[in-house]
From TrEMBL:
Provenance organism: Sinocyclocheilus grahami (Dianchi golden-line fish)
Boundaries of every Manganese/iron superoxide dismutase N-terminal domain copy: 45-74
Complex and partners: Homotetramer.
Major location (coarse): mitochondrion
Record keywords, A-Z: Manganese, Metal-binding, Nitration, Oxidoreductase
Pfam annotation, one family: Sod_Fe_C
Origin: domain of life: Eukaryota
Domain Manganese/iron superoxide dismutase C-terminal stretches: 81-184
EC number annotated for this UniProt entry: 1.15.1.1
GO terms, molecular function: manganese ion binding; superoxide dismutase activity
Co-factor(s): Mn(2+)
UniProt-recorded name of the protein: Superoxide dismutase
GO CC annotations, alphabetized: mitochondrial matrix
List of residues binding Mn(2+): 66, 151, 155
Gene: LOC107549081
Length: 190
């Protein structure tokens, strides 16, 4: 199914080529790997343990990341965030435009496949920009609570943008669901 079929903008189709079928693979693999991990004797086979953990990180992370990503985007998205989120962005980055520029730059600069993130630092109570490689989950990797993610695996944009990652990252701001990002900030502050 086409995720954002009503949106004329190219960015509206970003999720079509990586529809929920890919996420189901991540979910299935996570369950499978967890079962294998439970079945593997703890000390005897460290190599197997390590490889299972890496596979779990990839598939579990992939599921977590895409679950956030799909709710972060909306065909009715774009525009500006409101209220507390906007105030926090202004406080921590100077302006919405500066935050977008910083996050876009960090996301475009990901080596190979990975994700760019706007996250919440619970210790300082501030917003931060981060990037993660592969499917490494933001919170498990950096401690930041994920608010907004940009998937820069090539499958996320190849159909519409070929290998031009900066154009895709620029366009994705047109479909950001700021209400979802705000809800995530509220939840993270509790
Ligand atoms: Fe993806």
């Amino acid at each position: 199914s086409i995720f954002f079929s009503n949106k004329l903008h190219k960015a509206g189709e970003v999720s079509d080529c990586q529809s929920s079928s890919k996420d189901k693979v991540h979910m299935f693999m996570s369950s499978y790997i967890e079962m294998q991990t439970l079945k593997t004797p703890r000390v005897r086979d460290v190599t197997t343990q390590v490889s299972l953990q890496l596979a779990l990180k990839f598939n579990g992370g992939g599921h977590i990341n895409h679950t956030i990503f799909w709710t972060n985007l909306s065909p009715n998205g774009g525009g500006e965030p409101q209220g507390e989120l906007l105030e926090a962005i202004k406080r921590d980055f100077g302006s919405l435009q500066k935050m977008k520029e910083k996050m876009s730059a960090a996301t475009v600069a990901v080596q190979g496949s990975g994700w760019g993130w706007l996250g919440f630092d619970k210790d300082s109570g501030r917003l931060r920009i981060a990037a993660c490689a592969n499917q490494d989950p933001l919170q498990g990797t950096t401690g930041l609570v994920p608010l907004l993610g940009i998937d820069v695996w090539e499958h996320a944009y190849y159909l519409q943008y070929k290998n031009v990652r900066p154009d895709y990252v620029k366009a994705i701001w047109n479909v950001v669901n700021w209400e979802n990002v705000s809800e995530r900030l509220q939840a993270a502050k509790k």
